[in-house]
Amino acid sequence: MPTRAQPPNKPFLSLANFLPLLLLAGLSLLALVFHWIRIQFNEAVDFSLDWNLFLSWIPLLIAFLARAVSKRFGRLPLVIALLSVCWLAFFPNAPYMITDLVHLSVDYNRDLTWHDAIMLFYYAQISLINGLVSLYWMHGSWRRTYSKSIGLVLLLISFPLGGFGVFLGRIVRLNSWDILHDTQSFFDDIWNSVYDRTALLLSVEFGLLLGTLYFVLWVLLRYRTRWLERSAR
């Protein structure tokens, strides 16, 4: 009985795999252009925007690594679990930039108001896209490593946890790396925030926002995948 030909091993890293990162890098550079224009107004500039945008890249790169590992080496539950914990620690940095819109000061007669509105929205948009793409890659890694049902559970849990992380960053003022240099206080702040009404509000509403946007992204990508599969037949 003839044996089935095995598909050739794909390279661990390839140019095709890097194309999404290159595209998102280009969009992130455009955000810096908006900021450079803002600097030309000779007004006070808050460079935390650039820092927060950089932080949104950390979960993206972690998810990129998890995707590459799960595709190339198959099921490595402990490795993916470790990468998942690291990813979750930084994932809230992506939707966090939506809250930077509160810094917008409105004066309808100033051009600076409109530029700042566009700039803040663009930064938040790119950061959010980074987060959604990272979530899509992690979801795929969970499905390949564990099962479809476990992958779905982890996906659904990620939505409200992302909102809770935004609360910890914006209201409690925790940073992702506080767990390393002040572990006890870090977990104390988390525990004390569990019953906070604002924490519940942000967890639910950010969870709904992330869930809705992710559903749109998933449907579009799945439709594209199926269309390509049918075209190849």
Describe, in plain words, how this protein is organized in 3D.
Residues 1-8 have low confidence and may be disordered. Helices cover 76% and strands 0% of the residues. With 233 residues, it is mostly helical. It has helices at residues 15-39, 48-73, 77-90, 93-96, 111-145, 148-170, 178-181, 183-193, 197-232. α5 (111-145) packs antiparallel against α6 (148-170). The relative contact order is 0.11. It has one domain. Keywords: Membrane, Transmembrane, Transmembrane helix. The chain crosses the membrane at residues 12-37, 49-66, 78-98, 118-138, 150-172, 199-221. This is DUF1361 domain-containing protein.
Q: Spans of 5+ residues with little confidence (pLDDT < 50)?
A: 1-8
Rg of Cα set? 20 Å
Give the CA-CA distance, first to last residue. Answer: 26 Å
Mean pLDDT score: 86
Count, helices:
9
String of helices and strands: HHHHHHHHH
Helix-strand makeup class: mainly alpha
Topology:
Blueprint: H1 15-39, H2 48-73, H3 77-90, H4 93-96, H5 111-145, H6 148-170, H7 178-181, H8 183-193, H9 197-232
